[in-house]
Design a protein that fits this description.
single chain; alpha/beta; 4-stranded parallel beta sheet; 9 strands
Length: 269
């Protein structure tokens, strides 16, 4: 489910390239991969509540971008390419079959000296109808709390967040939670330890060593602050290493760290 920069360059006219943008859209309008269309992360979200958008909104968003059900999609993003993996998780839940992530994202593309453009691609809109949504890879707080002693929890945040020294990463310092720490029993595998220097995912052998103490016979749940970094861990376990039962708790620490009465562990003295 990963494609290389070379593969994408050779197949630009045969796939739909999507830049998933979380930060202000100036990044896209200054330069992007040729033929790429812009998907604003908030367009995948519900308009009124903290949740993902209903199928009719997602259908309109994808149709407006000229995406059809049969298209092969290649995703990349800003923020360390994390929102490409997050969008992959969301689009698979909404039933799109042919979705890939550009390994290394825009960083590797630039490093390999492939072309960029500031020309905005204006796609021809089309019909996109979502027939079925499958959220079996997602877990909500009540089920999570009922299974704390049965599941393998992986905290994809930084060590400082995991130990309770900070409540939010530097890039989101204005979004603090009421308490710091981690969900009891969680193992800390920071998302950025899965990458090489060029932001490509490490080899399968290296990744297996990183997850050597994760019990693949248990149900595994990944989380971070809002789900983006945890989606990289989810993708690695599910799509690269072939773990059978992997789910993402997208409520993550923004939800858990603001709840009353839930158990919390912390290493901070």
């Amino acid at each position: 489910m990963l494609v290389t920069s070379r593969w994408l360059y050779d197949n630009l006219n045969d796939v739909k390239v999507i830049e998933v943008n979380y930060t202000p859209e100036i990044n896209y309008f200054e330069s992007h991969i040729p033929t790429a269309v812009l998907l604003r992360w908030r367009d995948l979200l519900h308009d009124k509540i903290r949740d993902f958008a209903p199928p009719d909104k997602i259908s309109k968003v994808l149709g407006r971008l000229g995406i059809s059900k049969d298209d092969t999609i290649v995703l990349y993003s800003d923020e360390g390419n994390r929102y490409a993996f997050y969008a992959y998780w969301v689009l698979k839940a909404y039933g799109h079959e042919n979705v890939y992530v550009l390994d290394g994202g825009i960083y590797k593309w630039i490093k390999d000296q492939y072309p960029l453009t500031s020309e905005v691609h204006d796609p021809q809109s089309c019909e996109y109808a979502i027939s079925k949504v499958d959220w079996s890879s997602r877990i909500f707080i009540l089920e999570l709390l009922s299974k704390l002693n049965q599941i393998e929890l992986i905290d994809a945040r930084s060590r400082e967040e995991y130990e309770g020294k900070i409540t939010a990463p530097p890039e989101h310092k204005c979004e603090q939670t009421q308490v710091a720490g981690r969900i009891p029993g969680a193992k800390n595998i920071p998302w950025n330890t899965l990458f090489n220097e060029d932001m490509t995912l490490k080899s399968k052998d290296e990744l297996q060593k990183i997850f050597h103490n994760v019990n693949r016979n248990k149900e595994i749940v990944t989380y971070c602050r809002t789900g983006a970094r945890a989606s990289v861990v989810w993708f690695t376990l599910k799509e690269i290493l072939g773990y059978k039962s992997v789910r993402l708790y997208d409520g993550s620490w923004v939800e858990y760290g603001n709840m009353v009465g839930v158990p919390v562990e912390s290493s901070n003295k």
